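Example record for the data management plan.
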Amino acid sequence: MANIVITTLNARYIHSAFGLRYLYANMGDLQANTALLEFGIQQRPIEIVEKLLQQQARIIGFGVYIWNVSEISAIVSILKQVAPETIIVLGGPEVSHPPDLPAVADLADYIITGNGEISFPRLCSQLLHGAKPEQQIIEGGTAPLNELAAPYPHYTDTDIRQRIIYVEASRGCPFKCEFCLSSLDTTAKPFALDDFLRHMDVLYQRGARHFKFIDRTFNLKVDSSVAILTFFLERLSEDLYLHFEVIPDNLPERLKQAITQFPPGVLQFEVGVQTFDPAIQQLISRKQDNQKTQDNLRWLRQNSQAHIHADLIAGLPGDTLEGFGASFDTLVALNPQEIQVGILKRLRGAPLNRHNQDYQLRYDPNPPYSILSTRDISFADLQRITRFARFWDLVGNSGRFSTTLPLILAEQPFARFMQFSDALYAQTDSTWKIALKRLFELTYTAMTETLEISSSDAQTVLAQDFQGSGEKSPPTFLQAQIDVEHKRGVANKRQRQYI
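Corresponding structural encoding:
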């Protein structure tokens, strides 16, 4: 039982709600009467309502994000029917930019915009003492970072065993990229490094090995970046995994030296490239040295064991299908292990919304508010790019087609993979629920009939990839080729035995 419940819905079970833990850590005297409950977007709203009401709380606070706003809307609607006396407080990015608010805001008793670590406990204290604020929307207060209680002690042992552990060494971002809500920040502020590393050591001693840094600019301050990497170098283990978001054009020599000391499988760098088009970069206030970005990505692939996850965004104002393809081709040539093809989303409060009229940016009114069409890219072509992104994940990013992919892409990666994607969709009329064996069959058909790759070449590369896929029963068209590869392997093994 608790007077206050703070809750949200995570996209997946392995995710943990970092913001809720910050709230809980800063509840002060109210913490003893506060319960932190997490759910998943796959759970039925009515079942979540039942679990929430079991706490018999007077106040329920929800963290509302682009991925869970629909589900939270359903939950709050039910709560208002069966427990109208319960006070509903909403916070999070989806409700932080009035008057641009989702429909669920009309059902809330109170909304806290921005940071909630100070304002939410204050509101709860007022409500529990019968002093109800007159205004529904309350601006979130900020505090110096050194005055905030840290969230890390509130990761449970189960979290550490089963979930991603989110951490932040700094908060905010100095850059003004208009598609990102971090552009509203004035600067990036670091937490005290010694205190931060002390918390990391406690988490490590408790068994945490998967650390995901949510800093928008991990490599902004090189001294701090090197100190953090050195901390983890001293604690290397086979299961250590570190995820950082990095600025693509800032990789000084000291940072390079630290990066090269890590073995494979430890470092993942999320590199937000977004576009290589200088005109679009200027339009959306994105400062990026494209040549340095390319040089750094090339260096990382040639000189480090870091796994590079590079992001591109389709649908930015001023971009065209051909222009996006040019950025994609440039990135493919740099050979990151993953290319995340993202579709532009309308974020409430993001400065990019100032371009909506001039560039005819039309978004899906339903979450996650993906771009539908622009002045320069039609609805039909954006649908093609959306399918391209999905098939790229299945074939390009999965690692299951590493031998086949170069043959598909050849000298024109974007144009050829778009042909390939169109062909896959023509065969399936779907981008989901495609079994791996079926995907190999579809890929073979698209390669031979659409890309006009010879059957023998397609079978050779697909057979190699299928044998490494873990699937036991090959498609019929690959059986003969796999038998040949198997016989060749047996013969080579026998030959080596006689040498």
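Summary line stored alongside the record: Residues 403-499 form one domain.
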